[in-house]
Design a protein that fits this description.
The complex is a heterodimer of chains A (about 110) and B (about 120). With about 110 residues, chain A is mainly beta. Helices cover about 0% and strands about 55% of the residues of chain A. Chain A has no helices and 11 strands. In chain A, the strands form 2 sheets. In chain A, strands 2, 4, 5, 9, 10 and 11 form a 6-stranded mixed beta sheet that branches. A 5-stranded antiparallel beta sheet of chain A has the order 1-3-8-7-6, with no helix packed on it. In chain A, a hairpin with a 3-residue loop joins strand 6 and strand 7. The relative contact order of chain A is 0.35. Chain B is globular. In chain B, the strands form 2 sheets. In chain B, strands 2, 4, 5, 6, 9, 10 and 11 form a 7-stranded mixed beta sheet that branches. By secondary structure, chain B is mostly beta strands. Classes of the chains: A mainly beta (about 110), B mainly beta (about 120). The interface between A and B is medium-sized, with 25 and 27 residues.
């Protein structure tokens, strides 16, 4: 399968600070990406997506940046809250086929 | 009303036993999946079904057999359970097998997982 990796397996941030979670993907043909959030005891949930024809996409308190040159994705969470504590995954999709998930990053928000 | 529901949530069983995990989705999606999540949280696809037909069968021991009686259900049967089968198994569904460019938020809807412990 494809390899989608993350630079940091764990990340701790103070409540109110911004969080940045990074993801490297391996296939330059990947054309669609999704960030998922997995809370303890639950399945992954869709947060935000981005297509390869975009560099940036913003949602509510979240922004995804895509750098195709270096095959890198990042998820930025503004004003991190305790409820943001979870494992975050990036997933890549190639030509409309199945998604490949990276190893998650565990985000802990310190009150 | 849960969109993708799996049962049981927890399953503890002895080596060598045979067990099944059930999954149902009420989203009207055409495609369903089984994923395995290991202790390091890595998610790996096992199977994909589209309209009851097997589409993806990754390198999974043949002790694992998916069954889809209809497109709303995808069950996973595991024979001769081994210690290494201990993991969390997630069922997921998506509207289509192929990502549609017109869909604004295409993705998978996951169930809450089944934690399988083989002792």
């Amino acid at each position: 399968g494809e390899s989608v990796g993350l630079h940091l397996p764990t990340l701790s941030v103070q409540e109110g600070d911004n969080s940045i979670i990074n993801c490297a993907y391996s296939n330059s043909a990947s054309d669609y990406f999704i960030w998922y959030k997995q809370e303890s005891g639950k399945g992954p949930q869709f947060i935000i997506d981005i297509r390869s024809n975009m560099d940036k996409r913003q949602g509510q308190r979240v922004t995804v940046l895509l750098n195709k040159t270096v095959k890198h994705l990042s998820l930025q969470i503004a004003a991190t809250q305790p409820g943001d504590s979870a494992v975050y995954f990036c997933a890549e999709n190639i030509m409309g086929n199945q998604f490949y998930f990276g190893t998650g990053t565990s985000l802990t928000v310190i009150p | 009303d849960t969109a993708v529901s799996q049962t049981p949530k927890y399953l503890v069983t002895q080596m060598g036993n045979d067990k099944s995990i059930k999954c149902e989705q009420n989203l009207g999606h055409d495609t369903m999946y089984w994923y395995k999540q290991d202790s390091k949280k890595f998610l790996k696809i096992m199977f994909s079904y589209n309209n009851k037909e097997l589409i993806i069968n990754e390198t999974v021991p043949n002790r694992f057999s998916p069954k889809s009686p209809d497109k709303a259900h995808l069950n996973l049967h595991i024979n001769s359970l081994e210690l290494g089968d201990s993991a969390v198994y997630f069922c997921a569904s998506s509207q289509d097998l192929i990502v549609q460019a017109s869909h604004p938020n295409y993705g998978y809807t996951f169930g809450s997982g089944t934690r399988l412990t083989v002792v």
